Amino acid sequence: MIEVSNLKKSFGALDVLKNVSFQVEKGEVIAVIGPSGSGKSTMLRSLVHLEQVNGGSISVDGEYLVKDGVYSSQQGIKQVTAKMGMVFQHFHLFPHLTVRENLELAPRLVKGESREDSQKKGSELLQRVGLQDKADVYPANLSGGQKQRVAIARALMMNPAIMLFDEPTSALDPELTGEVLQVIKQLASEHMTMIVVTHEMGFAREVADRIIFMDHGEIVESGSPDQLFHQPRFERTRAFLQRSLK
Ligand SMILES: Nc1ncnc2c1ncn2[C@@H]1O[C@H](COP(=O)(O)OP(=O)(O)OP(=O)(O)O)[C@@H](O)[C@H]1O
User: Are 237 and 211 in contact (CB under 8 A)?
Assistant: First the structure.
């Protein structure tokens, strides 16, 4: 359903993505791992047009965001990016809005949903992430784990077909990562299509259907967690895993 081919992205003279290609099927959970600076975030951000690529193609369900380096019309870009919800490392909640208002803003403004509909959906999603009692609280009064769960609920408000997570637990104290990973696991069990950039190897092993290992702007190896964690032929991923577990 997501098809990425020969993606290229440079920042000045720095080639950050070099011919990145992969596909994600409906319902698949992909974990993207790799050293710092390998291009994981840039790849993810390119999918939702937060980065403009220099070449290659991205399509979702056959609709192109960019084809051979040429972007679709504004309308086309909107249609493709609307299929994806994104969750960032640093939450990106609106600080001047309550939790409920953070959730309801985009559905009302972008989709023109009625107050009644967005309130109903907001309450359901807050319940789902275990924060029904925080609806009228401002982000400053939430823990990092709670903020991230609000960010996930906010992304789900737009009914995305695909959820993208960019290191969703990296900014959290270790004791708060579990509550966020639990919500992502719940989505995986409901067969939400997801791409999760993560440094949480245990999570990648447990939840991902497939792991993509990126290094220096390339997908170096990819396979099931079992393959990557245990088979000798995936030696570069294994070497990385051993380094990161030290
Ligand atoms: N806006 C930018 N301008 C210039 N260079 C950038 C920009 N964004 C990213 N880079 C560079 O691109 C490279 C890849 O960055 P990216 O954030 O995609 O890596 P990453 O694999 O997600 O790293 P990390 O795990 O540390 O988040 C890095 O060398 C980074 O410094």
Answer: yes
